[in-house]
């Protein structure tokens, strides 16, 4: 089995910063893309940022220049550094990891979601 554990959310004032972490553990063979999504109250979940196994990154336009996604392959961890936070960034943030894991004598490709972490930007 595979588990994702998120950390780093919280309450911050506008203009402040937070760093989210998401660590994957279990019988992991390899990790492909890793990403962060968010869901605000009354809205659909949206993609915030992704990073490929080769380090290529993509961002939703609203966070470009403010957020930075990175990964530590040795630790199976993905990070989201969020700067210049705005009230509109308030949401539950979820990590998503596309990976291959061992199961008995097989290798299985699947994607997993973190439990979500609340980010609130308010004065």
Topology:
Blueprint: E1 2-7, E2 10-12, E3 18-26, E4 28-39, E5 46-51, E6 57-59, E7 67-72, E8 77-82, E9 91-103, E10 106-113, E11 117-121
Parallel strand pairs: 2-11
Antiparallel strand pairs: 1-3, 3-8, 4-5, 4-9, 5-6, 7-8, 9-10, 9-11
Task: Name the features.
elongated; 63% strand; mainly beta; single chain; 7-stranded mixed sheet; 123 residues
Task: Explain how this protein is built.
It is a single chain. This protein is mainly beta and 123 residues long. Helix content is 0%, strand content 63%. The strands form two sheets. Strands 2, 4, 5, 6, 9, 10 and 11 form a seven-stranded mixed β-sheet that branches. The protein has a four-stranded antiparallel β-sheet with strand order 1-3-8-7, with no helix packed on it. The chain is elongated, with a radius of gyration of 15 Å. The mean pLDDT is 96.
Indicate the structural class.
mainly beta
Rough outline: elongated
The number of helical segments is 0
Mean pLDDT: 96
**Unreliable residue runs:** none
Query: What's the helix-strand series?
Result: EEEEEEEEEEE
